[in-house]
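Homework help board

Subject: predicted structure for assignment chain

Our instructor gave us this sequence and asked us to write out the predicted structure in token form, then describe one feature. I got the tokens but I'm not sure how to describe them. Can anyone check?
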Amino acid sequence: MSRESTVALRRATASDAGAAADVWLRSFATALPGVVRPRSDEEVRAYFRQVLVPLRETWVAETPEARAIVGVMVLDGGLLSQLYLAPEWRGRGIGDRFVRLAKERSPQGLSLWTFQVNKPAHRFYERHGFVGVEWTDGRGNEEREPDVRYEWRP
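My token output:
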């Protein structure tokens, strides 16, 4: 049985906030080493604990055998605001499953932002039918990093 088939996607609970934040932190550091984070690790953990998990539609990918969180996705209406996987779990179909779930949850369409330097993310989202519609110089985000807004319309 493949590893991705053993991973369950489920809504996050309060007790998942720390592990989900840790996935975000590890993934960001691995995928975007040149992007400066404006928030400390503890501020990121607090944001997951106080905002994302209780106030947004937050999903996690969990391994049943270890009950380990290996991915996190956050939806805010039609905005796919977060999608991060533990680095060792990338390329195993979990991101594909998250995007399918996001499309099911927002069948009228989705938008998202990603940094221009994150070429693997561009390829991933474009493979899933997202189209780049706006490029910025980064003045509108905390990282001050040029980004691109993608949209998916059914």
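Reply (TA_rk): Your tokens look well-formed. For the description, you could write something like this. The longest helix spans residues 17-31. That's the kind of observation they're looking for.
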